[in-house]
Amino acid sequence: MLPREELLKGCRQPRELAHLIDxxxxxxxxxxxxxxxxxxxxxxxxxxxxxxQLSELxxxxxxxxxxxxxxxxxLQRAELAAGDSDTAPLTxxxxxxxxxxxxxxxxxxxxAEPDDVRRGLLAAGAAADDLGDIWMRGDRGAQLVxxxxxxxxxxxxxxxxxxxxxxxxxxxxxxxxxxxxRSPRELSSVxxxxxxxxxxxxxxxxxxxxxxxxxxxxxxxxxxxxVTSPSRELASGDRVRxxxxxxxxxxxxxxxxRDRWRxxxxxx
Length: 268
Hints:
The structure is a single chain. The protein is α+β, with helices and mostly antiparallel strands and 268 residues long. The chain folds into three domains: 4-80, Ribosomal Protein S8, Chain: A, domain 1 (2-Layer Sandwich), CATH 3.30.1370; 98-175, Alpha-Beta Plaits (2-Layer Sandwich); 185-267, Structural Genomics Hypothetical 15.5 Kd Protein In mrcA-pckA Intergenic Region, Chain A (Roll), CATH 3.10.290. The protein contains seven helices and 14 strands. The strands form three sheets. The chain has a six-stranded antiparallel beta sheet with strand order 9-14-13-12-10-11. A five-stranded antiparallel beta sheet has the order 5-6-4-8-7.
């Protein structure tokens, strides 16, 4: 048995991490690799830090594309893990059972965000851990990665995303139009304040009004915590994540001579 109490100490998501510990114990007991469902990036990082310290266990992850935020975790005995990678698709028989899904509809008059699509798929019968990353394709709908079993269940169905009826069609992942890969890059901006909406709009290249809307809708997290106040002030070291658009790290903040703030950001 793993040292469960020690592994859970101070964890922000104890129930979710406890489930991953259950899977790890199953993998160790049966000598059979076990895939988790999709987990969000904060839980994955926490699991990698806590379970990764166990010498007998190996963790790797895959979410269907190299920069996936939501990923499934592969838990297996360390002896079985030679050659696997958490930054590229697994090419052995341990490949994650993932499929693509095309969500087609006309969003010209009722634009949607990935969270809207997620809610529509949950209403159609998908489970939360069935669904990986979701990205919009303009006003035509969305695409996503999901577990193959869920794709088979959703195939050919229709559901509502906001007020739009959408059609669901599974496709191989290689036929998806994946989001553009992002190389880390440094940005610099001078802002009148350190408000979240001001700094994030500069970092993500969105208007401040649009950024404020996304924050109020719950699409933005700071240091993995949900934030709904656009006026939240940022500090050096803060990490701002916007679903589908990556992450900003506040690297440095310096006051200017005109009572403004020069903010250096790293966008991933």
